Amino acid sequence: MRVSASRALVRLALPLPLLLLLALSSCPPPALGDTSGSAGAAAATTGAPAANPGNPGAGSEQQCSACESRHHSKLMRLQAIKAQILSKLRLKQAPNISREVIQQLLPKAPPLQQLLDQYDVLGDDNRDGLVEEDEEHAVTESIMVMATEPQALVQVDGEPRCCFFSFSPQLQPARVLRAQLWVHLRAAREPATVFLQISRLKPPAEGARHVHIRSLKIDVGADASSWQSIDVKQVLQVWLRQPETNWGIEINALDGGRNDLAVTSPGEGEEGLQPFMEVKMSEGPKRLRRDSGLDCDENSSESRCCRYPLTVDFEDFGWDWIIAPKRYKANYCSGECEYMHLQKYPHTHLVNKANPRGTAGPCCTPTKMSSINMLYFNRKEQITYGKIPSMVVDRCGCL
């Protein structure tokens, strides 16, 4: 008896890359010990139905079989997507971040809101005819790094309690296009002029504890809080070239009464107002998109290899750590590959002839894929915005 595709995958204990390749394909792997040349196998090779004389319900059975095949392809595609995302983000498992923690960490700031508004307006059809060249891993476009407490070495009596920013060693100074420090100012009791000062922290043993970076004079109105952004690109590039100099910064925003209006250690009701750094990185090369090939829907009677719609809902995965999109159109491939495809893809034909114990013919599989943009929390609870390659099936074909 033929072992089902899912059981065969488990028993064979295939490595992840091969598992993903099989999962993206609508053709199941061969069952163990199945080397017979049955009529059913021959029908799978040619795409013709197996001979079944005297069975008036053969057409209905074939249609039902096609539905089951599509359902199997859909389930395998969903499993592959979960594994792909974790692999491309270099994660062994999904970050364990609860919804409550996410609500506390999400900054209520303009750059994040702009990204979320972009998803609300464009959804998961944000296609401009250009796609980035596929790569093995995600390509980061921007990252929002939340401020944390500096090391005790630069504190005196536990002060200052803010702000240290941690960056990945993979972040290259040359890729930084823009770096903005975002600071939220509390509302003043009356209209005032606030002096916003930013100083770089140093251990007392190295001399002066503070190195002045920037001063801004800001006019604020009464009973109106606001976000302020400061260009810190040069400071960040120094930190990236010389990580040992990154001890953090101190932020003060003093009004005429010497009241500090900068939210550096958020109190009750100030969740999401802590300082953060928004870093924009350069993008990679792009190329034009080509034709998407044959498309079908779930009610289609098409038996040939075709692209079918599939919407992935990350909330169904229980992945609250993905901020946006909450769902996207991934698509999947399913259908038969008739013998004529062997003439269109002669290389596949030669491979199959050289390996008669391999696949029974060309397989319906993605031949063109594109990336999606994603806003998510990484392992360090930093908000990252980037491209995840090869997540949308643009075209299906027989290979």
UniProtKB/TrEMBL annotation:
Coiled coil stretches, renumbered: none
Binding partners and assembly: Homodimer; disulfide-linked.
Originating gene: LOC108928232
Database matches in PANTHER family: GROWTH_DIFFERENTIATION FACTOR 8, TGF-BETA FAMILY
Organism: Scleropages formosus (Asian bonytongue)
One function term, GO molecular function aspect: cytokine activity
Keywords: Cleavage on pair of basic residues, Cytokine, Disulfide bond, Glycoprotein, Growth factor, Secreted, Signal
PROSITE patterns per the UniProt record, alphabetical: PROKAR_LIPOPROTEIN, TGF_BETA_1, TGF_BETA_2
Signal peptide region: 1-33
Entry protein name: Growth/differentiation factor 8
Keyword Disulfide bond: yes
Domain TGF-beta family profile residue range list: 287-399
Region (Disordered): 33-63
Record's compositionally biased regions (Low complexity): 35-60
Protein family according to the UniProt entry: Belongs to the TGF-beta family.
Stored CDD domains: TGF_beta_GDF8
CC terms in the record's Gene Ontology section: extracellular space
Known function: Acts specifically as a negative regulator of skeletal muscle growth.
Locations listed in the record: Secreted
Top-level taxon in the UniProt lineage: Eukaryota
